[in-house]
UniProtKB/TrEMBL annotation:
CDD domains: serpin (cd00172). It comes from the Eukaryota. The lineage of its organism: Eukaryota, Metazoa, Spiralia, Gnathifera, Rotifera. Residues 120-487 form the Serpin domain. Belongs to the 'GDXG' lipolytic enzyme family. Belongs to the serpin family. Coiled coil: none annotated. It comes from Rotaria sordida. Gene3D superfamilies: Alpha-1-antitrypsin, domain 1, alpha/beta hydrolase, Antithrombin, subunit I, domain 2. Keywords: Hydrolase. This is Serpin domain-containing protein. InterPro entries: AB_hydrolase_3, AB_hydrolase_fold, GDXG_lipolytic_enzyme, Lipase_GDXG_HIS_AS, Serpin_CS, Serpin_dom, Serpin_sf, Serpin_sf_1. Pfam families: Abhydrolase_3, Serpin.
Amino acid sequence: MQSSPPALTDENRVIETRKQAEVVHAKMNEKLIPTFKGTLQEQKVNVNSTEIPITIYTPVDVNKTKLVIFFHGGGFTVCSRKTHQTIVNVLADATKTIWISVEYRRGPEHKFPIWWEDACEVTRHILENKESYGVESSAKVGLAGDSAGAALSASICHTLKNIDFQILVFGIFDMRRTTPSYKEFVHPMYFLTPEMLDWLTSSAFRDTNDLTDPRASVLLKPSFENLPPCLLIPAELDPLRDDSYAYQKVLDDAGVKTKMVLIKGVIHGYFSVPDLLSIKDMTPETRLIIINSIYFKIKEFSKNLTNKNTNFHEVNGKISKIALMHQREKFAYAENNDLHVQIVHIPYKSENKDVEFVFTMILPNRRVQLDVVEQKLASQPDLMQKLLSHQNTRTEELHLYLPKFKMETTFELSDILQQLEMKDTFSSYKAHFTGSEAAATAVIITYHGPSLPPPQSIEFKADHPFLFFIRESRQNIVLFSGKFISPPINS
């Protein structure tokens, strides 16, 4: 870290943030956990006279030759086994492998090194008692985690020598935060702001001396030899991104087998698995959209209001064909004459009254290059906040044209693990992890409404590149940001 952490955080903020994290994941868990094809078992592990809760996910037809211990992210302060329940649920089911999710204690109530000791000692206990967790005594054990959980996984691999592999999703490996990506992604649109990182740091650590403890900052370890094979999965638009690059380099230099899979176009916190829904989960009136393990319900466009062969004008002057859905309806709308852009805020339908999610689009005039708009917004954070809020918006009837798009980047985890010579670890399944050029999984915007009213509406025609954001509108928190620059194949 480049400066001293601020004073002890207000615990009310911690409580409220934890509550929000639980709320936004509750609906997803409620929907998917009952579909888990196996058993969930709650147990506790005694660590220094403290009972640490764990959840054991045992799928049907489980392979007893392997086991994965999972540590959730959340800056060692927020999130829990519950917020990450869906992720572990799906991974265990897909891999036919027992996954154990650990509820280590968190700051500010329990600062470093308590949460590190909890994670390490639970891992040690499981390693020494494999058979009691449903696998063979010779079973291979891997560690996995996202963000802070990835940091824990990496660190424990240095301490305990019987780990067979590690999966590190957008991890933080040097708490001093000195890599270039921390300066590159400071804008609130990238979610993990310097202020948020300072707050989490002050909540999780006692003082700045803790930040240079190699248990917390694994890049400060004196040696990286003889570590287990490592899969690193950073997010492209993440302040933590360069930590993964740096960690891969020191592992490579030490002769450790590594694989890097950069998920392009996504911000920190993105960790999702596609195809979680079967066709029976879809109804004629709604579609379920999964975005970072959150469901959103939105109305549908009428099928007869889709132009299937519309021109889309790309940045390079190329014209592609795309299906454009269109509808006349009232939306929150604004214009900015300095940027020459239109802004529309499309609400998601939600049964959860504690949060309000909005899909916001910023559409430049066709004569204005999207990268010019991006540069201006990046240099003027206040302007970005203004555009993303409902400030200066008015309710207008729009003739709204939107591309129906599903933007994904998919990789096969099983193939990657085989490249890391972990063929026996995951061999009989294909687990898909999806990212997207638009920083959201399976973004499908569809509406259903009455027949078209008389004209007089403002045209909002997204037939050329645009920016989009998924926000919690009450607090104007950006969950995802991205840009649509060209139609996907088979759009």
